[in-house]
């Protein structure tokens, strides 16, 4: 997608949600940094919060390698790696989630430690859905790991995260690709890192397992489309390509295989290559 218009001022990177498809953002980040783009602001949701925290907290020369190390770590692979028996046991234990949050917490702590959002080198915010008042909540201070865990608490897969008396679920429920937030915070050049799902056309559900998927896709795409058309004329927006075949068709069985890590390496490299080609065109 071409830039909306040319602008000046702060540069933001927006990282959307998408589970394992978030691997494409590793390639997109590499392409951005190789093209000389340095963000003043990073905003993310769900897996985009995880990738975004590393981007905001690392030196540019280290970001790509650190992200790849995170995605290749045993704890990252174990986030959704439990077998059916273990999932049933965890669901029986927790009553609400099929997976324990501990592998994700360990992976994040290994990468981010006990750092605070306000101490990161680049301004960072991430989004979560607060249960008590059904609100869109933005974390802009406090422990990075806690905020990312709240932003990535996928309903039914990971349990709600409790912080200071409130409970949070995945930010994708309220703002999956938070372009509007970057504009609100004053960005004048925005690079959007989406994972490819917005490119697949929808159709009415025909099977029971498609109903929730269609409902969620309508919600997330509507919000992003509205934000995109509402961008002021003095703000430049680039939506980076996720790479050919990055996301399975939303109505295919592959779309339900959230534990399949086999395509991570391919997604990273394809996204890096196609994003680099895109950036050579728009930044030349």
Polypeptide structure, described:
This protein is α/β, with parallel strands linked by helices. It has helices spanning 23-34, 47-57, 60-72, 74-78, 84-94, 102-112, 144-151, 179-184, 208-229, 264-282, and strands at residues 11-15, 41-45, 123-130, 135-139, 161-163, 166-170, 189-193, 236-240. Strands 1, 2, 3, 4, 5, 6, 7 and 8 form an eight-stranded mixed sheet that branches. Helix 6 runs antiparallel to helix 7. The longest helix is centred in the last third of the chain and has 22 residues, at 208-229. The radius of gyration is 18 Å and the shape is globular. 44% of the residues are buried.
Short description:
The two termini are 16 Å apart. With 284 residues, this protein is of the alpha/beta class. It contains 10 helices and 8 strands.
Rg over C-alpha atoms, rounded to the nearest angstrom: 18 Å
The major pleated sheet works out as: 8 strands, mixed
How far apart the termini lie comes to: 16 Å
Q: SSE string, helix = H, strand = E? A: EHEHHHHHEEHEEHEHEH
Tally the helices. 10
Give the low-pLDDT segments: 1-8, 255-259
Number of strands: 8
Percent strand:
5-15%
Helical content stands at 40-55%
Shape: globular
Summing up helix and strand content along with how strands pair, one would put the structural category as alpha/beta
| Overall residue-averaged pLDDT value | 87
